[in-house]
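During the second year of the project, the team shifted from modelling isolated chains to modelling whole assemblies. The rationale, set out in the original proposal, was that interfaces cannot be judged from single-chain predictions alone. As a representative example for this report, we include one of the complexes processed in the last quarter. Its constituent sequences, exactly as entered into the pipeline, are reproduced here:
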Amino acid sequence: MADDIAAGRLRPGDPLPPQRELADTLRVSLGTVTRAYAEARRRGLVIGQRRRGTIVAPERGADSPLASIVSEPSGAIDLAANWPIYAADPDPTAALREIASRPDVRSLLRYPPPEGGARHRAAGAAWLRSQGVKIDPEALLVSGGAQHGIFLSLAASTIPGDTLLVESLTYPGVLAAARTLGLKVRGVAIDEQGLVPEALEAAFAGSDAKVLYCVPTVHNPTTAILSEARKRQIADIVEQHRGWIIEDEIHRSLVEAPTPTLYELAPERTMLVTAASKALAGSLRVGFVTAPSALGQALLSAVQSSVFAVCPLGAELFATWLENGTVTKTVIKKRRSAERRQRLAFDALAEVDGVRLRGDPAAYFVWLTLPTGRSATRLAADARDRGVRVLPRSAFSAEPDGPDDGVRLCIGSPEDEKALTKGLNTVVDLLRRPQTELAIF
Ligand SMILES: Cc1ncc(COP(=O)(O)O)c(C=O)c1O
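Output from the structure prediction step:
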């Protein structure tokens, strides 16, 4: 099996034969085949799908959200990474010159306090206030982007072996952080409107989990936005179980009228995580985390043991841009561009039979549900062969045996609308053809 996968005779998404059938063909016992399948799964060669049996896993690294950062640019059209439309990034020249010309510029070279400098925490609080979230700067700490904020929040609220609750489809970065921290992950059902409160109640009641990570605003990957009513239910459930919420609000600034945060509904139980990456520029690596008083010290220890303190240069650029209005202008520009790109995706995919598309004007991605019988893993592999990267549902799945029927298309990643259209057309073309099946065994 491993040889066939390495040689390309078995392709990602290919179904493996039922175990009994294979045992008969190879004239070995069923137990031998079962052990071989388990070993293949352990090696990451195959994944189990509830209804479709076992299939060949996505190519190694192909479903990693970080793959395109660490690999050389390949010329491929990237619809896999949630990049924030670089063409709408601000020009940093004037702000960098201004910072460089300040008499106290050298103070930026000193070790900052682990929670971040007062000016930068105040900037974070002011920015959150502009998004309708009332917050005291003292209750905030500076993180190195939202991914770091998630990592800090998990480190502060869990110990290895704990169970983390997440939406059944979730941001791959939280799955990676949970793995690093030795956490078990359990998916909580979502529907068209996002996290289902009754399922959350059952998950807390039926496990020893204490922490919920969720993306209430423009859920990654489905783009759902949680209503205020559901948030109230969720906040109540978490309060009742004396749990913690890690509320990822990275997309909040892009949404015109967001609902109140879980943080406001349960401030002493919520670590709200946000960052400037999607609103301004991915490289700034500046984010903010709200620290409930019971976890303040643990969060600070997590900062110190990970980076000691976040480099203040990105935070200073952010604070300067917040003061001179660049943040507001850039968010408007990015949002308009996202809206236009959403329309391009809907126009391109509208004509394809059987697919369902979900998007949001503020989202840098759309979520595609495939017609029955199509494999998302296979689509991703076929697209990759044609120079387009997309992520199949398994990359977002909290548990390994979900259906293989969804693909996230990141419309914010391609450099321009022409490249986006080319990538979308490739996906449309693949969807219009019958799925290629390889004869196996
Ligand atoms: C939901 C979500 N949270 C967090 C992040 C990471 O953000 P940052 O780049 O600030 O680390 C991303 C990036 O794609 C994301 O989609």
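The first strand starts at residue 46 and ends at 49. The radius of gyration is 23 Å.
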